[in-house]
Design brief:
The protein is mostly helical and 78 residues long. Helices cover 55% and strands 0% of the residues. The protein is built from four helices and no strands. It is globular and about 30 Å long. The N and C termini lie close together (10 Å).
Length: 78
C-alpha cells in the first residue's frame, strides 16, 4: 500500500469526523470507532476516488470492521 494514499485517506476521514488528522489512526474502524454514518461513508468513497482515481465500493466501506488502513488499501489497488 502506498503510504501517501494512507495519509490522504486519514486526512479525508479527519475532515469528515472533524478531528485533527493526527487523531485518526490506520487501525481505527470507520463505523465502530470513528462513528461514520452511511452518508459520510459515501462522501469518503467519493473523495478518495477523486484524489486517487481508484473507484471505491461504498458498500465495502459500509461493512463493520473496515479500518482506515483497509480503505487506503482499496484505494491503492491497481
Amino acid at each position: 500500500m502506498d503510504p501517501n494514499v494512507l495519509t490522504q485517506v486519514k486526512d479525508i476521514v479527519a475532515a469528515l469526523v472533524e478531528r485533527p488528522a493526527d487523531q485518526v489512526h490506520a487501525g481505527d474502524l470507520l463505523i465502530e470507532d470513528l462513528e461514520l454514518d452511511s452518508l459520510q461513508i459515501t462522501e469518503l468513497a467519493q473523495k478518495v476516488e477523486n484524489r486517487t482515481g481508484t473507484p471505491i465500493d461504498e458498500d465495502v466501506l459500509n461493512a463493520r470492521g473496515i479500518t482506515v488502513e483497509r480503505c487506503a488499501e482499496l484505494a491503492s489497488a491497481p
